[in-house]
Every structure is written in C-alpha cells, then in structure tokens.
Queue: 2 jobs
Job 1
Amino acid sequence: MMLSPWGIRRLLVTQDEIRMKASSTIQDILNEVVPDEHQWLTDIGPTIWDCEESPFGICAYNRHELDDNSQHRSNWKRECCIFCGEPEERK
C-alpha cells in the first residue's frame, strides 16, 4: 500500500499528537510519585533502566534544557537518577 504525500502527512501528524499526549500523561504520573523538589523537572529518559530505589521500578532523571526548544526530549540533558544516582548514559 502506497500512501500519498497527504496520507503520510496525516499519519505523521497523528503520531506526533499521540507522542505529545503520552508525554503529558507520563509527566502527570511522574509528578504523583517523585519528591516535590523534582516535580515538573523529571523525565524517564530515552532508555529505560531498572532501579530498585525508585518507587516505580525505573530510573528517573532531572532534565536540564540544552537550548530554548525544551519541549523536545532530544534537547534535554539528563545526568543521574534522582533515586539511585546512576547516570542516564551507561556504557
């Protein structure tokens, strides 16, 4: 099945809307369980790491903006898990 340019556009817009809604939902869930000083700053990162110290079993990181376009996850820097202290980038 070959999609027209408008079909591809519609599919991409739909997928982007799903991604944005999922991101909002993830943030709402995180804000329920992370300590107050980390709310609205916390992200799970692009790689899911198991975390025994986390109340939800995976690492969470405070994100730091790398540029003015902070709505995109690729523009965030994540350092160490707020629960176990392990780095987001593990080799």
Note: The chain has one domain: 5-81.
Job 2
Amino acid sequence: MGYGTRPGTLGHTIRTFWPDDTDTEIYLDSSTRPTLVEIQQKISEKWPDAWAANITFESQEINTDCLGYDLYDPSDWTNFIIIRRSNGA
C-alpha cells in the first residue's frame, strides 16, 4: 500500500504508511495474532521452494499513521512480524 492520506480534524490531511511485501519480505500485522500454521502457509504461498535455513523472522514497530508529527503517540505505530528470505543456503 505504501504511503497514503486520510482526512483529519479541522480539514487537515494526515499522512499514513503501510509496508508492502517485497520479493524477499512479508509484513504481517502482529495484532492479527497469526498462528504458526498461518505463517507457514504465507511462506509456502510466496516462496514454495523456500527452506527453513533461508527464512528469518524479526519484529519491528513501524510508524503507520500521523507521519511527520513530532509527538510520540503509540497508536500511530503498528507492530509487524517481518519474514525475510535470503538467497543463500
């Protein structure tokens, strides 16, 4: 989805961001609480020939709402599970 906007209060426009999957990365919103079976299914769908040795997992908090505002607001951030596939064996 990338960058976008949504209406704010008093006629302001609020900038937003949602990461896109790439050839080597899958972004899962951790608030959906995916099960291991669901994660394995996503990996198999995207990379049918992937091996466990090629897959890494990381968690990251990404600013997805109200971009550019100076004050930290935890509701403007989303926790993601990032699944990465490396090219090596």
Note: The chain has a mean pLDDT of 92.
